[in-house]
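Hi U.,

Before I forget, here's the chain from the pilot set. I'm dumping it here mostly so it's searchable later in email.
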Amino acid sequence: MRKNFSRKRQTIYAALCSTRSHPSAEMIYTALKPENPDLSLATVYRNLRDFCADGTAVSLGVINGHERFDADTSPHSHFVCRGCGRVYDIEEAYPQQRMQELGERYAYSFETCEIVFTGMCQECLGGENKIQH
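Structure:
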């Protein structure tokens, strides 16, 4: 994070970094608004876009009608529950070797790979053997 971030920008980034829920701009805005009455939703959106542009965050795309964000830019995948809409980290790294093989086959130079699994989480399945997320 650059040192010349404004207080609002730092607050928004801190909120994004403090959660693993992969929040939307609206979720961050709702969480921060009570302590930051002059904060606007447009400011949150603008800063999230800037974080994605400078590589300090990533967009997971639109999930259940809202773009979701992640401050963890390390190589990992995601699981989206189609029941509750929660997004969970899958800690395994990108398939770097497979990317290289595909790049050679198609004569492309791949830089990243984003993998998103969808299905039902343990809670939505009503599973007895719940795994900590």
